[in-house]
Amino acid sequence: MVEQHICSFCGAQLEPGTGKMFIKKDGTIYYFCSTKCQNNHKLGRVPRRVEWTAAGQKGANKE
User: Fold this and answer.
1) Which residues of 7-37 are buried (b: 16+ CB within 10 A; e: fewer)?
2) Strands (E), 1-63
3) d(CA 32, CA 50)
4) Is 29 helix (H, G, I), strand (E, B) or coil?
5) In the predicted structure, residue 62 carries a pLDDT above the cut 80
6) Structure pTM?
7) Helix (H, G, I), strand (E, B), or coil: what is residue 10?
8) For 5-59, CATH number?
């Protein structure tokens, strides 16, 4: 069975064979569904404060 991953920034499900896996030197693994999510993570943005993420919608009680 193929392993399913969740985007580390926005919380969306990744389809098998898509997205990017980023591994830091300390062994932490990040999965990104798009370059939009990857760049927002790189800029240090918090997913709770970004409206279009799952955490942002949950914080705004829109879910």
Assistant:
1) bbbbbbebeeeebeeeeeeeeeebbbbbeeb
2) 5-6, 13-14, 20-23, 29-32
3) 16
4) strand
5) no
6) 0.84
7) coil
8) 2.30.170.20
pLDDT surpassing 90 at residue 42:
yes
The kind and range of the H/E element at 59 are: helix 54-59
Q: What is the mean pLDDT of the chain?
A: 92
Question: Is the Cβ–Cβ distance between 38 and 24 less than 8 Å?
Answer: no
Say which residues have a Cβ less than 8 Å from residue 3's Cβ, sequence separation at least 6. 16
CA distance 10 to 40: 10
Q: What is the mean pLDDT of residues 23-50?
A: 95
Tokens 């980023």 belong to which residue? 22
How far from 54 is each of 2, 12, 16, CA to CA, in Å? 24, 8, 20
